[in-house]
Design a protein that fits this description.
Layout (H helix, E strand, L loop, with lengths): L1 E4 L1 E4 L2 E8 L15 H30 L1 H14 L2 H14 L3 H17 L4 H23 L12 E5 L4 H5 L6 E6 L7 H9 L3 E3 L3 H6 L5 E5 L4 E4 L3 H22 L15 E6 L5 H6 L4 E6 L13 H14 L4 E5 L27 H6 L1 H14 L4 E6 L5 H20 L9 E6 L2 H5 L1 H4 L5 E4 L1 H9 L17 H16 L3 E4 L10 H6 L4 E4 L4 H9 L6
Bound molecules: phosphoenolpyruvate and magnesium ion.
């Protein structure tokens, strides 16, 4: 038996046989051609085939994992038509009189290296995307559009150096139990897709793993700990089979908690809400019996497109969410653009430290017209349900004062235009920076609620880039500094009659649920699939002890 450890992407145990993933990558040779025009025509045809295949992949992703996760394939389609990329292809074919495959391969290497060298983590991630689309074009050039052989084996754990997003989405969930990769970061699109496909996955186990495995070896991936065992011994297999059965049992048990209260043994009731990224997640929210929506990441309305969504477009989406939730609370966060959430039309420009740059509320306050369009849509939609609006990445009282003034102007404008809105909207701020937590006594009297964004609060408190896999081990959200800031914020919220929730990933960490309840957290907002698990945890806590 050998044990490897990587980063867990999805919490579940998979037990099966190794299937080594064969990338569908044709071998490229440099061939001199007499007719560069004919090569360019071949290239055009291969690009067209690639776009058609990506359209199909996009539709599959839309169906399997929803729009916010499918947009990466729209980016792939845009990259194929990117002017610089295409200029490089044509230039190599013309100037060197070489075959199209070679031009694509060289361009892919050059562009991937260029993206890789960038500081911005969003741009860095484009390196894998360029390789992914270039492999697709090369295959279409070599194989004339016939697809690579699809995955045949069943009950397997796919093992690969890395998986591209398009390879991940095409894994057949009825045959593949999970996947393990030697490389890859937990924040990559592949990881995000895996989480949304509910596939047990472990990434970054290291290259020794790949050297030592063989097709058909027995393998267990423990997605709770990130451990991978090859040719596991009897005891390990027994232990993890039991763990798998217990989890299955728990999952069934959790289903029986639908309709039950989130109440501790000594009678304290809290709210358990769900986080969503778009209307396609509402089904999961209702299915898992969440009491409301604690975080709607509205920026996903803005990503993967060429221009800002209009007021009408946004109004339609917000109204749909509010109506679907039938007067349960819906907290919508205003646009959290910047850092890892980028679109070309934002025109943010190059920043040395994008996580410390023009992101979230700073972006909105620098572009008041864009901010006002979103607020108008939100206020207009407020008549259709129980809306809370919250603002991301607040650091000062002055920012909040400016925001509240803009809200007042928006309301006056709507009133003057005879447009309806509710007077009962709750206003909140996200606590995502140490500054906001430290001045929470000053912010609390100005708002109805706080929502702690522990992903960013951890990043900014510990000075650890949440996108950088190299510092993942230093980015400990259980760090006392993070927990003390949450406690301080809870104290200040309650002294001033404001409520406090947690909507970052830590809210779903059951090892902290009791501590959160003891410091007075009123609401936990988690991915829909975690709602019943947290309910179970809450119902077993006795705060009187
Ligand atoms: C957070 O920072 O914890 C949060 C909920 O916001 P996001 O993850 O979208 O930045
Ligand atoms: Mg955040």
């Amino acid at each position: 038996m050998k044990k490897y450890t990587g980063n867990s992407i999805y919490n579940a145990v998979a037990i099966g046989k190794v299937s080594i993933f064969k990338h569908c990558r044709g071998e490229v040779r440099r061939i001199r051609v007499d007719d560069p025009e004919a090569e360019k025509a071949r290239l055009e045809k291969a690009k067209e085939m690639s776009i058609n295949q990506l359209k199909e992949i996009y539709n599959k992703a839309l169906n399997d994992v929803g729009e916010p996760n499918a947009w990466i394939f729209e980016i792939h389609m845009m990259l194929i038509n990117d002017t610089d990329y295409n200029e490089s292809l044509i230039n190599i074919i013309d100037s060197q009189s070489v075959n199209a495959e070679y031009a694509v391969s060289v361009t892919a290497d050059n562009f991937a290296a260029m993206f890789e060298a960038m500081d911005d983590s969003y741009m860095k991630a484009r390196s894998a995307d360029v390789k992914d689309i270039s492999d697709r074009i090369i295959n279409n050039l070599i194989m004339g559009g016939s697809e690579c052989a699809l995955f045949e084996a069943e009950n397997v754990i796919v093992c690969a150096d890395d998986l591209a997003p398009s390879e991940t989405i095409l894994l057949d969930k009825s045959k593949v139990l999970g996947f393990v990769t030697a490389y890859g970061s937990t924040n990559s699109h592949t990881a995000i897709l895996a989480r949304n496909m509910n596939i047990p996955a472990i990434m970054g186990v290291g290259e020794e793993f790949l050297k030592n495995i063989k097709e058909g070896d027995s393998i267990i991936a423990d997605g709770f700990t990130g451990d991978v065992f090859t040719e596991p011994d009897f005891d390990t297999t027994e232990r993890l089979t039991q763990k798998q059965n217990e989890e299955e049992e728990k999952r069934r048990f959790h289903q029986n908690l639908k309709g039950k209260e989130n109440i501790t043994l000594d009678g304290r009731v809290i709210d358990i809400f769900a986080n969503i990224e778009g209307t396609e997640n509402i089904g999961a929210v209702l299915l898992n019996d969440a009491g409301g929506i604690g975080l709607f990441r509205s920026e996903f309305l803005y990503l993967g497109r060429h221009d800002y969504p209009t007021e009408e477009e946004q109004f339609g989406v917000y109204k749909k969410v509010l109506e679907s939730m039938a007067w349960k609370k819906v907290i919508i966060r205003t646009l959290d653009a910047g850092a890892d959430k980028q679109a070309d039309y934002f025109h943010i420009g190059k920043e040395e430290n994008p996580a410390l740059g023009c992101r979230a509320i700073r972006f909105c306050l620098s572009r008041p017209e864009i901010f006002k369009t979103q607020l108008r849509a939100l206020y207009r939609a407020s008549s259709y349900g129980n809306l809370g609006i919250m603002f991301p990445m607040i650091t000062s009282v002055e920012e909040l004062t400016e925001i509240l003034d803009i809200c007042k102007n928006v309301k006056n404008e709507l009133k003057a235009q005879g447009k309806e809105y509710s007077e009962n909207i709750e206003i909140g701020v996200m606590i995502e920076t140490p500054a906001a937590a430290i001045i929470s006594d000053l912010l609390a009297p100005m708002v109805d609620f706080f929502s702690v964004g522990t992903n960013d609060l951890t990043q900014y408190t510990l000075a650890c880039d949440r996108q950088n896999p190299k510092v993942e081990r230093f980015c400990d959200p259980h760090h006392k500094a993070v927990l003390r800031l949450i406690e301080l914020t809870a104290e200040n919220a309650h002294k001033n009659g404001a409520r406090i929730g947690i909507c970052g990933e830590l809210g779903a960490d059951t090892s902290l649920t009791e501590e959160f309840l003891r410091i007075g957290i009123d609401e936990l907002s988690v991915t829909p699939g975690m709602v019943l698990k947290i309910r179970d945890r809450v119902r077993n806590i006795d705060l009187s002890k």
